[in-house]
Amino acid sequence: MSEALLEQLFDSLTDTLLMVGTASLVALLLGTALGVVLFATTERGLWRQPIVSRGLGALVNATRSTPFIILMVAIIPFTRLIAGTSIGTGAAIVPLAVAAVPFFARLVESALREVDRGLIEAAQAMGATPRQILGKVLLPEALPSLLRGLTLTIISLIGYSAMAGAVGGGGLGDLGIRYGYQRFNPTVMLAVVAVLIVLVQLVQSLGDFAARRLQKK
Amino acid sequence: MIKLDALGKRFQGPSGLVTALDDVSLEIAQGEIFGVIGRSGAGKSTLLRAINLLERPDTGRVSVGGVELTGLSPDALRHERRRIGMIFQHFNLLSRRSVFDNVALPLELAGLSKRDIRDRVTPLLDLVGLADKAGQVPAKLSGGQKQRVGIARALAAEPKILLSDEATSALDPQTTRSILGLLKDINQRLGLTIVLITHEMSVVREICDRVAVMDAGRIVELGSTFDVLTQPTHPLARDIARGLEPELKLQQLFGDRFSDVAIPGANTVLRIAFSGPNAEAPVIADLVRRFNVDLNILSGTIDHIQDRPYGVMKVELAGAVEPVVAHLKSLELGVEVLGYVRSALRTAL
């Protein structure tokens, strides 16, 4: 492999990490918030709001049922609004985040649901406010599964980011398609796949390790 | 201390409406250990949760310490709840917090400083005998230890009342006794009012001053533990109270010699309950001498309920039964004819 190619590989990896990292961060912040709202507004929730619950649920489902490649193209006007352009690595972050937020939100919701209802009841009996129940009981107790959810989200984002090339974004996927596929260069293709495998493995191991450390059972 | 006034509550169950509370009124005095017993689904859990309004009744009023909880805003209710501790069957401890931090939780919620929390939690861990486990997580503890953490946590905010939701039902008999001993100790030392629900009469017998028996959302019997256990009037209360006696299956014991109806010349099976002034008198020996009857003891227990002696004996009696029964009644002992057995006693002797 030539030095130029190595440099390309390195640049693409940086692009991927930038896209995935930023989108993950957005998913972590907005997805947690959305997940909490989804959890809390249900019929038996802490802030019962059936209309909000059903509305947000439908929106989340709609986003999640749209294939990413289509979602990316469909929200170009929105992307342009946020990023100022619809082309390039920076612009690719927007659809990645839009896809990741509802994905992670559902994982947050189910992690919160898994917390024993008895704990909520105990906190209520102590006179805890809904906010305290969330901050002192639900989120801390759900932390290990929240972390596993985040790991899953990051890995999914790595997969999605490969499609960013379709809107002129960079990254490993783009490199693999342009050099490996369109220019018939199997070395590049293999190198890209190898880097992706290592990357995913690394994220998974790190996530598992951290979740285990948090789980005190 | 606690006043429940005409509480009603219905749930939408899988097969129609279920009445969990049906016009329940109850007063529980300060410093009392009050038990609520009943089968599952009798409404006792709903009753307990109505006291701190975890379960808000559809109708009726709940007052605790002179404050009517049913009339409070959510914020004021939360404030009042801090004065009512609660422990649970499955402990409900936070798995990711240490023993210390679990006990500290109610104090954190109340906004106490770190130092005040430490000053409060440390003696509580001493009280429940877990000072050496402060840094452990609950998963490392036994069931009895977890419940001790639950008790310490419930006491952290210095409540006036402790609600116990089947707190010993997940524990083995020995651990149950030690937890009940702890509750009794707390009751006496801190003057804490304790309301506990259970399906085990042995729990009631061990520590309760008064007991209510619940069935289908209603209190069917209410009185001192001694009275309810020794002289239950409602059939369910009788069933539950007699559950403490050794089981004696007369039909199995005597086979076809046993009969529910009187047979001329047959022996009589009597159940004699020893309570009241003559509970400790040598009644059986006296009967044999006085009436010249033969007695075969089938089963017997002697027990202390609320420090008063109480015994139950089942005997097979050969001879005239009426004067014996009359005599026992004159001694204020409980007598009941359980059935008749065709004689085998005399020939055996």
How many β strands of chain B by DSSP? 15
Q: List the helices and strands of chain A in order.
A: HHHHHHHHH
Mean residue pLDDT of chain A: 91
- Supply the number of helical segments of chain A: 9
Tally of structural domains of chain B = 2
Radius of gyration of chain A: 20 Å
Which labels suit this protein?
heterodimer; A: 217 residues; mainly alpha; MetI-like fold; 9 helices; 81% helix; 0% strand; B: 349 residues; alpha/beta; Rossmann fold; Alpha-Beta Plaits; 2 domains; six-stranded mixed sheet; five-stranded antiparallel sheet; 13 helices; 15 strands
Summarize the model shown.
Chain A is mainly α. Chain A is built from 9 helices and no strands.
List the helices and strands and how they pair.
The complex is a heterodimer of chains A (217) and B (349).
Chain A: H1 3-40, H2 50-65, H3 68-74, H4 76-83, H5 89-113, H6 117-125, H7 130-161, H8 172-182, H9 186-214
Helix pairs in contact in A: 1-2, 1-5, 1-7, 1-8, 2-5, 4-5, 5-7, 6-7, 7-9, 8-9
Chain B: E1 2-13, E2 16-28, E3 33-38, H1 44-51, E4 59-64, E5 67-68, H2 74-81, E6 84-88, H3 99-109, H4 114-127, H5 143-156, E7 161-165, H6 173-190, E8 193-198, H7 201-207, E9 210-215, E10 218-224, H8 225-230, H9 235-242, H10 250-254, E11 258-259, E12 267-274, H11 283-291, E13 294-305, E14 308-318, H12 322-330, E15 334-341, H13 345-348
Parallel strand pairs in B: 3-8, 3-9, 6-7, 7-8
Antiparallel strand pairs in B: 1-2, 1-4, 4-5, 9-10, 11-15, 12-14, 12-15, 13-14
